[in-house]
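Homework-ish question, so no full write-ups if that breaks the rules, but can someone show me the predicted structure for this set?
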Amino acid sequence: MKKKKRKINKQKLMTLLYPVLFGVFILILWQTQLLHKIIGADTFTLPLPQRIINIIFDNVPEILMNVKATVIVSVCGLILGSLFGYGLAIIATAFPKWGTGGLSIASALSAVPIIAIAPILNNLTKDLSDDPNFRSMVAKTLVVTITCTVSMSVNAFRGFTELKPFSRDLMTSFAADKYTIFFKLMVPNSIPYVFTALRVSVPASVISALVSEYFAEYIIGVGRQIRENIVLAQYATAWAYITVACAIGIIMYCILLVTEGILLKGRR
Amino acid sequence: MKKISKKSSKKLVSILLTLTISTVLLGGCGTKTTTDTTTTDATTTEATTDATTADAATDATTTDTATGPYYESDATAESIITNAASLGKVGNWGLGNEYEVQALLSKYGQDTTYLSQAFDMDGFDDDSILLASAMTYNELGLVKNDYDGAYGYGDSVKYIDMNEEGVAMLEDNIFCTKDFAETNPNTVKAFIAASMKGWAYACANPEEAAQIVYKYGSSVSSDHQAYMASEVKKLVETDMTGAPVTTYGVINDDAMQQTLDLAKTYIKLDDSVAADALQALTLDDIRDSSYWEAATADGAVLGAPEKTDVSIQLKWLPQAQFMGYYVALEKGYYDEVGLNVTIVPGGGDIGETTAVYTGQVDFGVTWVSNLIAADAGGMNLLEVSQVYQKSGLVLVYKINK
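A: Not a homework solution, just the prediction itself:
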């Protein structure tokens, strides 16, 4: 029994170790400029990791200010979008005739590129407030909301409808009313599906927040800094912000995985 | 029968949903409807009350004779800038075009933050920007004129000129990498000679030049091209002090020094290595007049070009801003000097400095400030000719009528 447990741990360790080792390998190639030779880049367009890290540490307050703007937008949009999507799924379940058709349209909406929605929402929110920072924040959040709504509504709808065989019959045989069936059976059943949706929408929320910053009226955010620095040919600084953007995405995803692990303990 | 009706109801719902979604999306694209005017009016009246209080000390006439929601036609540049900046309604495109505006804001003791302006003038039109950036040859024409696609404000707008305020920075030039100039000196000279011949012809015949540019693909109407050509002519033939310039493409060191000094103050680089490099830059690092002098000297003998197939990356879409190159191409001036030139239009986020640095193109047109930032970042770019002799950037505002 003990032996088996150790074996599992070792396997877990290896699955973690291999990607880390690969990352370190790439990083070494990069720092020693072998990577530049392989892909034919120069140290100007692909600066060395050392320089990128130096820039990050030199500009901590400014980077944090931009990170704050991006994270607020993506988290607010994620929460709003997910709640809205969950609500849509409930409505779709309540009216299944309309629901399936409506949701397939909703998933078609997710194909509309962020680049198309962002400037439009910018225009729509112009009269919202006198503070450009606030109104562009709203516009960006709305973009993220739209991106996150779709995956949540489609997945949650599946969570409500794809029940275990006969579970609904069992509930009916207990003379459970509609609301009991919904709260005791369908909602718990939808939770794993909610996390499936979140696994898609958490990275998507960060990406759409970054892209929507390109078009925002008020100049702030990690995505905007990437654009400004690339246009000004400051590639090292742009790479510093790209690194920060990656870190935001990875950290948010890790938080999601940990939460999922805690909430769904013993269910998988 | 029941099944069919179920299906059709599904379809109906789908169609309805698509319709609502598309109307909502399209709604954002359109111009403002009458319902919006009340809100915009409200903000502007608020703006003037602020304006009157802020300017009471400096500009007493505003309080007495305020006749509308905008600025008085005789208001001083200082009062307008102070007011617009305190309301946070100064606009610029950013991305390296903002330094002159920041220098002007600093001149009058204002904070250097500005609103991100889109590439149209809708923000100025709907009053979310009171003091908007405009190029004399492009946006200013769109605001004032009334041809298709323009806003038709006529003389109900005025502008603040960067040259008069002493914060002008040089704009469109011709540049290449130092390595390219060293290995292909004759190509550089031939390119400058032919391009300047093109500019001279274009400035002598702006209407024909506008037609030529329009033929080569244009994002704007031919009316606007003609307007642009006439305005660009002024930038090419007048320097920052207002004196006429007859030597096309000459590098004026005083103007270059002013540009470099302003660039050192207002270009903010997070990369400490690049920031130090920026402060260490001298004129000799960014420009070399010898190619232009050799190319335009009387009886200049241009040697055989080392590289005959060359390309030039423009800073923006094909328009009369670059008429000299299109004229030189159309009139065969490049052929005369033995060059086969390809003109590559820019637009959006295309970095002309990066394109030249990586060797995708040989020459580029950029603003001197962008070249300075790129060189500070580690590129080895060199200006070989300065086409625009003064700044074309203005800040435009509406006046009360």
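Now go work out the reasoning yourself. Hint: The longest strand of chain B covers residues 381-386.
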